[in-house]
Design brief:
Layout lengths: L2 H11 L2 E9 L5 E10 L6 E11 L2 H8 L9 H26 L8 E12 L1 H4 L7 E5 L2 H8 L3 E3 L2 H6 L8 H9 L5 E7 L2 E7 L9 E7 L2 H11 L8 H4 L5 H7 L20 H11 L6 H23 L6 E6 L6 H10 L3 E5 L10 H15 L18 E3 L3
Parallel strand pairs: 1-4, 4-6, 7-10, 10-11
Antiparallel strand pairs: 1-2, 2-3, 4-5, 6-12, 7-8, 8-9
Helix pairs in contact: 3-5, 7-14, 8-12, 10-11, 10-12, 12-13
Bound molecules: adenosine-5'-triphosphate (ATP) and the ligand CC(=O)N[C@H]1[C@@H]2OC[C@@H](O2)[C@@H](O)[C@@H]1O[C@H](C)C(=O)O.
């Protein structure tokens, strides 16, 4: 037997594993690195975050990724070059943080790498009946494995597509395994570039559990912060807080069939971008809004579309506890607008459940790799788009 297969087999049989989960999301702010200790699998998964950090991307790498990010027309050589480059970059970032943490690579069992989404095209978006759902992440796992010397699982989303899903959101698995609690209706709300939530019913029934994107989280706010403030984001929503919501622009922004489409569904910055906002401004004759008013309206747009989706799963007689995660939880204007629209919900962050809300998505990929190694038996019912859990491709270091 190839020694590396034997090593993988041994890791799969361990009572607990040390797995590094990686996430670089649509915000392009940097690489989230979560070193997790994971026991068990499926609903018995127990995760402890031993270390977590975000290694920021410098302006150069952000600019390189933006040349191909969420664009229909790109330079193919650039895409080809970035695929190994990002893999190596992520590998180098892991080595550097392991040094900081004084942990040897040999003490880590697995790296679980999301890579960088560069294009997401579910059928509902590309609308070409000839083609399936499609999504593309780059930063090839072989380069992560070779750079770190650690067996790497990567490219998790393709199996989801292969089994009928849209390739996202994958949060459903991690959220159910880590956070489902009999007796409490839970909503796990993640606000990254794109917002999504997982519904975890109080009866713990896996066949009812799902995650869906709701639309923009921070992606539009960040795009206009770069334009108006020359900053990556509107810190603490200060600019938005100084403006007034334009009801006519808000109404135009909401006229997209995505918002009333059935769950689960996905989207991305391919749809929700500055061009989308400019079209809505033309339609509502609000081209001359002040920077602050535009920002205030975009925050309300994110808040309204998030709460509109959450309200669709809520029964009037029941109570719901919302646990927030992702960078949007740090924006008081956004969270304030959401709380106002959901007065009957209790709000917390996933920190109160033992998982740092900034680390949650990186932890998800560690959990997914753990499941591919040692689980894979949980049924989510016979539903399109929620396949059995065994995702990711294996890369050996040599
Ligand atoms: N103090 C703050 N004030 C306002 N916004 C903030 C603050 N801190 C973080 N954010 C927002 O959070 C974003 C980063 O969020 P996060 O890292 O969760 O996104 P992501 O993982 O890249 O996206 P996705 O989940 O869509 O892939 C920033 O770009 C910014 O918009
Ligand atoms: C295609 C893609 O990368 N989608 C991301 C993105 O970021 C948030 C939202 O859009 C979600 O659908 C997904 O990521 C999370 C981790 C998920 O799959 O659950």
């Amino acid at each position: 037997m190839n020694k590396q297969i034997q090593h993988l087999y041994d890791i799969a049989q361990k009572a607990e594993r040390r797995i590094i989960g990686l996430m670089s999301g649509t915000s392009l702010d940097g690489l989230d690195i979560a070193l997790c200790r994971i026991e068990g699998s499926g609903p018995a998964t127990n995760v402890t975050i031993e270390q977590f950090t975000t290694v920021p991307y410098n302006d150069d790498i952000k600019a390189e990724i933006r040349t191909i990010f969420a664009k229909r027309e790109i330079d193919f050589e650039q895409l080809c070059l970035l695929n190994p480059y990002i893999g190596r970059l992520h590998g180098t970032m892991i080595r550097s943080v392991l040094d900081d943490w004084k942990i040897e690579a040999s003490e880590v069992d697995i790296v679980a790498s999301h890579g960088q989404t560069v294009y997401h095209a579910p059928k509902t978006q590309h609308r070409n009946p000839k083609f399936p759902n499609a999504t593309l992440q780059i930063g090839d796992g072989d380069h992560v494995a070779a750079t770190t010397g650690i067996i790497t699982f990567s490219d998790f989303r393709q199996k989801h597509v292969a089994l009928g899903g849209e390739g996202a959101p994958l949060a459903v698995y991690g959220d159910y395994f880590m956070f489902s609690k009999i007796g409490e209706n839970r909503i796990l709300l993640n606000m990254g570039g794109i917002a999504n939530f997982t519904y975890l019913p109080a009866d713990g029934d896996a066949s009812k559990v799902f995650t869906t994107d709701t639309g923009p989280g921070n992606t539009l706010l960040d795009a206009y912060a770069r334009r108006f403030l020359n900053k990556p984001y509107d810190e603490d929503g200060k600019l938005a807080a100084s403006g007034q919501v334009s009801e006519s622009l808000l109404a135009a922004l909401k006229t997209n069939p995505f918002f009333d489409a059935p769950f689960p569904k996905t989207t991305g910055p391919e749809v929700f971008n500055t061009l989308y906002v400019e079209k809505a401004q033309t339609q509502s004759q609000t081209e001359n809004l002040s920077d602050a008013d535009l920002m205030a309206t975009l925050v309300q747009f994110s808040a309204d579309t998030i709460t509109h989706s959450i309200e669709r799963v809520m029964q009037r007689s029941d109570t719901y506890h919302v646990y927030m995660s992702g960078g949007g939880m740090h924006n008081p204007v956004l969270t304030g607008a959401i709380r106002k629209r959901l007065p009957n919900c209790t709000f917390d962050t996933t920190n109160s459940l033992g998982i740092n809300g900034d680390a949650k998505e990186a932890v998800l990929f560690a959990v997914l790799a753990n499941e591919s190694l040692a689980g894979g038996n949980t049924s989510f019912g016979d539903r399109q788009g929620v396949p059995t859990v065994s995702m990711g491709k294996v890369s050996f270091p040599q």
